Amino acid sequence: MRVLVVDDERNIRHTLRVCLEGFGCEVREAATPEAALAALAQGPADLAFVDLKLGTASGLDLLPRLLAESPNLDVVLITAYATFDTAVEAVRRGARDYLPKPFTPAQIRHVLDRSREHRALSSQLESLEGQLAQAVPEATLDTSSPVMHAAIGLVSRAATSDAAVLLRGESGTGKGVLARALHSMSVRRRRPFVTVNCPTLSEQLLASELFGHVRGAFTGAVKDQPGRVEQAEGGTLFLDEIAEMSPSLQAQLLRFLQEKQFERLGEGRTRKADVRVVAATNRDLEKDVAEGRFREDLFYRLNVIEVKLPSLRERPEDLLALARRFVAFFARTGQRPVTPELSPATEQMLLAYPWPGNVRELRNAIERALIVWPAGVLEPQAFPDRIAAAAGTVVALGGPHTLEEVEREHTLRVMASAPTLDEAAKVLGIDASTLWRKRKKYESGGKADS
Question: Residue 279 has what DSSP assignment?
Answer without folding.
Answer: E
